[in-house]
Structure formats: C-alpha cells, structure tokens
Amino acid sequence: MKNTIFTGAGVAIITPMNADGSINYDEFGRVIDFQVENETDAIIVCGTTGESATMTDEEHVECIRYCVDRVKGRIPVIAGTGSNDTRYAVELSKEAEKLGADALLLVTPYYNKTSQRGLVAHFTAVADNVNIPIILYNVPSRTGINIALDTYVTLSKHKNIAATKEASGNISAIAKIIEACGDDLDVYSGNDDQIVPIMSLGGKGVISVLSNVMPKETHQMAQLCLDNNFAEAAKLQIKYLELCNDLFMDVNPIPVKEAMNIMGFNAGECRLPLLKMEQSKIDTLKASMQKMGLVK
Question: Is 165 a catalytic residue?
Fold first, then answer.
C-alpha cells in the first residue's frame, strides 16, 4: 500500500494577475492564506485553473516556489508539472521536487496526444526521475486522450505513481479503476459535481475549483464522506450543485476568477486567449453566489 498524499478537498488554486497580465504575488499569498485558514486539505498549484498553459517556464517555477514557501508545510502542496513534451515534464518535475513540492500532478499529453503505450512510457519517464508521489490527471475533454483501464493498472504498479485525478465524468469507468487498482492507486474526483459519488466508491477526495470560493464547505462535504456520512454529504452536493455548474458556464478558470473578484479578491482577468465573461453570465454567477451567502 502506498502513502495517501491527502484526503479531503484540495484546491486547484487560481493564479491572480495584475492589470498588465503579470502574476500578482501579493494577492496570491492572500489567496493561499485564505485557503489554509479555511480548512483546505491541499493546494494544487500551476494546474489548469492556475493558467499554467500560459506561463513561461520561469513563471511556472516561481509560482511553485512561492506557493511552497508561503504554505510553509501547513498542508501538502502539489505542483502541476505536466506537459505534452516528456523531456520538459521530467525537467519541471525534478525542479518542483527541489523546490519542496510534496507531490506532482501530471496531465496526459495534449495536442500531439499519444497511444496508451505512449502514456505508459511518458508517465514512467517522469516517475523514474523523481522521488515524490505523482497524481495522474485524466481530463479527455481538454486533452483528447483518455487513460484506459489497462494503462491505469500498469502505471499503478510504479512506486511513485500514487493517485489519479479523474475528470472523465464516467462514473462506471471510475468504479472499474478503483476495483482494478485497489490500494495501488488513490482516486480523486476532478469534477465538483461528482465529489460524493466518487468518494462513495472509495475515492479519497477532490481536486476542486469550487474550493477557491468555498474552501470550508468543500472540505466539509469531503470530510462527511470520509466519515461515512454520505447522506449529509449528498445534501451538500445538491445544495452546491448550481454554483458548481455556474463555475463552468464559461471556460475554466474564467468564471472562478470572476467569482473571486466578486468576493473582493484581486484575482484579475485571465490571460489571452481567455476573455472576461459577458455581463449576462456574470449576473447569473453572482446570483448563484448570493444564494450561497458569498456576496450580498
């Protein structure tokens, strides 16, 4: 059995931007502290929600460094170091380990994609070059490639591949992954609207966009699952469902950064090619947030 990286709700944290598009580290620190103080169980930095796709190599490394230093060991920091270039993924993963990251999040290669054999070779190349645990990230809607069950079984045998973030949306497939891999691979929900279903099957928690705006509540939902109180957890899943959906009414992380701005954070806007939402969508999002008591 491998050590579990974290249980509960880990936040896929945003990266605040200044008006000129540079990273706003002062506000990033404020957002990190807000998460830690409100019971988030882990921070996932430089993921999709953190806009890693538009970061330079220097920015990517500095964001990881800053997050690790700011968290100061209070909760695990998981660094997004995935790439469609295996060599770069290896280099960035080794650098994140040097910076003190507790674990890595590796998305499947995108655009050029690969075969299932290529996935095994890609993830194994990274895992062979680091000494911290890896969370695979399966999000076929973005990458155009799905990790097959047999591939999961093969990868789960590597000592450094500890978990997966499953955002395929396919509950039946996720159940088969949990059955086939057992204690060799922890599973985290990659979708906020599936936290309770996946944890009811044995998932360890969620890597969450919702946690950016409702860290304490998302932690509570996951903790209820860990406590085997699925009836109460399901009530929260339904209660927060409208907001979960509205945080994806536009391309992530456009809505969640807008939500953070509405709450009084200086999240800024996303980097191009992502654009600010239309006012009608902002109004809809704000109405959902008002129902949750996040704004007046």
Answer: yes
Q: Report how many helices (DSSP H) and strands (DSSP E) the chain contains, helices first.
A: 13, 8
Which of 165, 204, 240, 257 is catalytic? The answer is 165
Q: What is the pLDDT along the chain (296 residues), one digit of tens a residue?
A: 689 999 999 999 999 999 999 999 999 999 999 999 999 999 999 999 999 999 999 999 999 999 999 999 999 999 999 999 999 999 999 999 999 999 999 999 999 999 999 999 999 999 999 999 999 999 999 999 999 999 999 999 999 999 999 999 999 999 999 999 999 999 999 999 999 999 999 999 999 999 999 999 999 999 999 999 999 999 999 999 999 999 999 999 999 999 999 999 999 999 999 999 999 999 999 999 999 999 98
- Report the run of H or E that residue 88 belongs to, with start and end: helix 86-99
User: Do 78 and 104 meet the contact criterion of CB atoms below 8 Å apart?
Assistant: yes
The pair of structure tokens assigned to 250 is 């536009």
DSSP H or E run through 63: helix 57-71
Name, in order, each residue with C-beta under 8 angstroms of 17's C-beta and a sequence gap of 6 or more: 23, 24, 51, 267, 268, 269, 270, 271
Assess whether 216 carries a catalytic annotation.
no
Count of residues making up the chain:
296
Return the amino acid letter for 281.
K
Which entry of 25, 94, 137, 152 is annotated as an active-site residue? 137
Whole-angstrom distance, CA of residue 103 vs CA of residue 96: 9
